[in-house]
Design goal:
The protein is an alpha+beta fold. The chain folds into two domains: about 25 residues; about 190 residues. The protein is about 15% helix and about 40% strand. It is built from four helices and nine strands, in the order H-H-E-H-E-E-E-E-E-H-E-E-E. The longest helix is centred in the N-terminal third of the chain and has 22 residues.
Length: about 230
């Protein structure tokens, strides 16, 4: 029986097979890469846009059962690409400045085992790396913190400098107050901005240019945060 070796194979067939292997490996590498607005931009004629925004909620929206007061506010810029890809959610990222001055209510069990109302007062300043997602089909928006800043470093601005602190006081259990203070930077306390739905069906098209500001109010109890779009570039 005649044995075949690479030297017996047609050179063109060999190179064709090698090319197929490389193509498969290249597709696998693309599929494994992290998807970000930066990679989305390469998929068509899309424009990089920057929105100046304010996200805001109030103590009264957080708890209608007690005298909750004050505000939790995030301001800054969001960067993304438009128009959205067909049948896809569109994502915007940014580093926002958070200012919290809000009082809410909690419960505390007394020595007799009876739960009573207690107060929680938040005073906080900090920065938040966030992603704002506009769901396709005008199904609303969603605000959340970005846990891994490095994954979005190509779009996020340099981390701002300035004071970052939180102080939580009140009449609730001291251990609870300490935990709430520790959790402030994670966006899960006070107005809890990380993980909030918003009543935003979508942003206006690039042309004609809309008039700003644009206000998207909440719809309690499904949403308690307001988005105000102050400007857009371009």
């Amino acid at each position: 029986m005649r044995r075949l070796s690479l030297s017996n194979l047609d050179g063109r067939a060999c190179w064709r097979d090698i090319s197929v292997v490389y193509s498969i490996l290249s597709l696998a590498a693309v599929a494994a890469a992290a998807f970000t607005p930066g990679t989305a931009a390469a998929q068509g004629n899309r424009t990089k846009v920057t929105y100046t925004v304010e996200f805001r909620t109030s103590g009264a929206l957080l708890d209608a059962n007690c005298t909750a007061t004050g505000t939790d506010v995030l301001t800054g810029t969001l960067v993304g690409f438009e128009p959205p890809l067909p049948d896809e959610d569109n994502e915007y990222v940014g580093t926002l400045t958070r200012t919290t001055r809000i009082t809410t209510c909690g419960t505390r069990r007394n020595a007799a085992g009876i739960d009573g109302v207690c107060s929680i007062n938040y005073v906080g300043n900090g920065f938040a790396d966030v992603m704002f997602t506009l769901h396709e089909g005008q199904r609303g928006g969603y605000l959340q913190y970005i846990p891994n800043r490095a994954a979005w470093s190509a779009l996020l601005p340099p981390r701002p400098s300035g004071p970052t602190n939180s102080v939580v006081t009140g009449t609730c259990d001291p251990a609870e107050l300490a935990q709430l203070q520790s959790d402030y930077d994670g966006g899960q306390t006070a107005g809890s901005p990380s993980g909030q739905p918003l009543e935003v069906p979508g942003f206006p098209p690039l042309r004609p240019r809309p008039s700003f500001p644009l206000v998207f109010p909440p719809s309690p109890p499904n949403s308690i945060w307001t988005l105000t779009v102050l400007d857009r570039q371009p």
